Protein backbone atom coordinates (compact mmCIF):
# COMPACT_ATOMS: atom_id res chain seq x y z
CA UNK A 1 0.00 0.00 0.00
CA UNK A 2 1.41 3.40 -0.93
CA UNK A 3 2.36 5.66 1.95
CA UNK A 4 -0.28 8.25 1.06
CA UNK A 5 -2.99 5.54 1.08
CA UNK A 6 -1.76 4.32 4.46
CA UNK A 7 -1.78 7.87 5.85
CA UNK A 8 -5.32 8.29 4.52
CA UNK A 9 -6.40 5.05 6.20
CA UNK A 10 -4.92 6.22 9.51
CA UNK A 11 -6.71 9.56 9.17
CA UNK A 12 -9.99 7.74 8.53
CA UNK A 13 -9.55 5.57 11.64
CA UNK A 14 -8.84 8.66 13.74
CA UNK A 15 -11.84 10.50 12.31
CA UNK A 16 -14.08 7.48 12.90
CA UNK A 17 -12.98 7.16 16.55
CA UNK A 18 -13.61 10.88 17.03
CA UNK A 19 -17.02 10.92 15.33
CA UNK A 20 -18.17 7.62 16.86
CA UNK A 21 -16.17 7.24 20.08
CA UNK A 22 -16.18 3.91 21.88
CA UNK A 23 -17.04 3.87 25.59
CA UNK A 24 -18.32 7.45 25.49
CA UNK A 25 -20.69 8.34 28.31
CA UNK A 26 -20.88 7.52 32.00
CA UNK A 27 -20.72 4.40 34.15
CA UNK A 28 -23.43 3.37 36.61
CA UNK A 29 -20.81 2.56 39.21
CA UNK A 30 -17.27 3.84 38.91
CA UNK A 31 -14.51 3.10 41.40
CA UNK A 32 -12.23 5.83 40.07
CA UNK A 33 -13.11 9.12 38.39
CA UNK A 34 -11.04 12.07 37.27
CA UNK A 35 -11.34 15.20 35.18
CA UNK A 36 -8.38 16.61 33.29
CA UNK A 37 -8.11 19.76 31.24
CA UNK A 38 -5.62 20.74 28.57
CA UNK A 39 -5.18 24.47 29.20
CA UNK A 40 -3.35 24.88 25.90
CA UNK A 41 -6.36 24.15 23.72
CA UNK A 42 -9.31 23.82 26.11
CA UNK A 43 -9.87 20.04 25.87
CA UNK A 44 -11.75 18.65 28.88
CA UNK A 45 -12.00 14.94 29.64
CA UNK A 46 -13.86 13.14 32.40
CA UNK A 47 -12.79 9.53 32.84
CA UNK A 48 -14.65 6.90 34.86
CA UNK A 49 -13.20 3.48 35.61
CA UNK A 50 -14.73 0.39 37.21
CA UNK A 51 -12.20 -1.97 38.77
CA UNK A 52 -13.25 -5.53 39.53
CA UNK A 53 -10.84 -8.19 40.80
CA UNK A 54 -7.90 -5.83 40.12
CA UNK A 55 -8.85 -5.43 36.44
CA UNK A 56 -10.46 -2.62 34.48
CA UNK A 57 -13.89 -4.15 33.98
CA UNK A 58 -15.46 -1.05 32.43
CA UNK A 59 -14.41 2.44 31.42
CA UNK A 60 -16.13 5.50 30.01
CA UNK A 61 -15.18 9.03 29.07
CA UNK A 62 -17.00 12.25 28.35
CA UNK A 63 -16.09 15.86 27.73
CA UNK A 64 -15.21 18.13 24.87
CA UNK A 65 -12.09 18.13 22.83
CA UNK A 66 -10.44 18.15 19.46
CA UNK A 67 -10.45 15.23 17.06
CA UNK A 68 -7.09 13.91 18.32
CA UNK A 69 -8.04 13.98 22.02
CA UNK A 70 -11.42 12.32 21.44
CA UNK A 71 -9.99 9.66 19.13
CA UNK A 72 -7.14 8.94 21.53
CA UNK A 73 -9.61 8.54 24.43
CA UNK A 74 -11.74 6.16 22.37
CA UNK A 75 -8.73 4.06 21.38
CA UNK A 76 -7.39 4.07 24.93
CA UNK A 77 -10.67 2.81 26.40
CA UNK A 78 -10.75 -0.05 23.90
CA UNK A 79 -7.16 -1.00 24.71
CA UNK A 80 -7.32 -1.08 28.52
CA UNK A 81 -10.51 -3.04 29.25
CA UNK A 82 -9.56 -6.27 30.97
CA UNK A 83 -6.11 -5.00 31.95
CA UNK A 84 -4.76 -4.70 35.46
CA UNK A 85 -3.78 -1.24 36.69
CA UNK A 86 -0.11 -2.24 36.33
CA UNK A 87 -0.65 -3.32 32.72
CA UNK A 88 -2.54 -0.09 32.02
CA UNK A 89 0.33 1.94 33.49
CA UNK A 90 2.76 0.14 31.15
CA UNK A 91 0.49 1.06 28.26
CA UNK A 92 0.42 4.70 29.39
CA UNK A 93 4.22 4.74 29.43
CA UNK A 94 4.44 3.10 25.99
CA UNK A 95 1.96 5.60 24.56
CA UNK A 96 3.77 8.57 26.08
CA UNK A 97 7.17 7.54 24.74
CA UNK A 98 5.61 6.80 21.35
CA UNK A 99 4.04 10.23 20.86
CA UNK A 100 7.16 12.10 21.89
CA UNK A 101 9.24 9.90 19.60
CA UNK A 102 11.66 8.69 22.30
CA UNK A 103 11.84 5.02 21.28
CA UNK A 104 11.15 4.69 17.56
CA UNK A 105 11.74 0.91 17.56
CA UNK A 106 9.51 0.03 20.52
CA UNK A 107 6.83 -2.66 20.24
CA UNK A 108 3.51 -0.84 20.00
CA UNK A 109 1.26 -3.88 19.72
CA UNK A 110 0.04 -3.48 23.32
CA UNK A 111 -1.60 -0.18 22.31
CA UNK A 112 -4.01 -1.60 19.74
CA UNK A 113 -5.46 1.04 17.41
CA UNK A 114 -3.81 3.78 19.49
CA UNK A 115 -0.47 2.91 17.90
CA UNK A 116 -1.60 4.76 14.77
CA UNK A 117 -1.27 8.00 16.72
CA UNK A 118 2.51 7.61 16.44
CA UNK A 119 2.48 10.37 13.82
CA UNK A 120 1.50 12.90 16.50
CA UNK A 121 5.21 13.09 17.36
CA UNK A 122 5.61 15.17 14.18
CA UNK A 123 3.21 17.80 15.60
CA UNK A 124 4.44 18.87 19.07
CA UNK A 125 1.42 21.11 19.64
CA UNK A 126 -0.85 18.02 19.43
CA UNK A 127 1.04 15.83 21.91
CA UNK A 128 -0.93 17.13 24.90
CA UNK A 129 -4.17 16.48 23.00
CA UNK A 130 -3.17 12.88 22.30
CA UNK A 131 -1.93 12.17 25.82
CA UNK A 132 -4.80 13.76 27.78
CA UNK A 133 -6.86 10.56 28.14
CA UNK A 134 -3.78 8.47 28.89
CA UNK A 135 -2.65 10.91 31.59
CA UNK A 136 -6.18 10.83 33.03
CA UNK A 137 -6.06 7.03 33.11
CA UNK A 138 -2.73 7.02 34.90
CA UNK A 139 -3.81 9.66 37.39
CA UNK A 140 -7.14 7.96 38.10
CA UNK A 141 -5.39 4.66 38.78
CA UNK A 142 -2.58 6.10 40.89
CA UNK A 143 -4.52 8.84 42.68
CA UNK A 144 -2.23 11.58 41.37
CA UNK A 145 -3.73 15.00 40.84
CA UNK A 146 -2.12 15.75 37.48
CA UNK A 147 0.22 18.41 38.92
CA UNK A 148 -2.51 20.99 39.30
CA UNK A 149 -4.36 20.10 36.10
CA UNK A 150 -6.60 17.35 37.49
CA UNK A 151 -9.04 16.92 40.29
CA UNK A 152 -9.47 13.41 41.63
CA UNK A 153 -13.19 13.13 42.19
CA UNK A 154 -13.25 9.73 43.84
CA UNK A 155 -10.92 6.84 44.33
CA UNK A 156 -12.16 4.03 46.52
CA UNK A 157 -12.36 0.26 46.61
CA UNK A 158 -15.68 -1.60 46.74
From TrEMBL:
Record InterPro entries: NIF_FeS_clus_asmbl_NifU_N (IPR002871)
Top-level taxon of the source organism: Bacteria
Domain NIF system FeS cluster assembly NifU N-terminal: 10-129
The organism's taxonomic lineage, starting at the top: Bacteria, Bacillati, Bacillota, Bacilli, Lactobacillales
UniProt protein name: Fe-S cluster assembly sulfur transfer protein SufU
Gene: sufU
TM helices/strands, residue ranges: none
Amino acid sequence: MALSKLDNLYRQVILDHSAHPHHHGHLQKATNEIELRNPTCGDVLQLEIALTDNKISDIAFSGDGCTISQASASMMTDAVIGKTPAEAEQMVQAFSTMVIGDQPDQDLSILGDASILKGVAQFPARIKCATLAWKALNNALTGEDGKGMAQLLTSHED
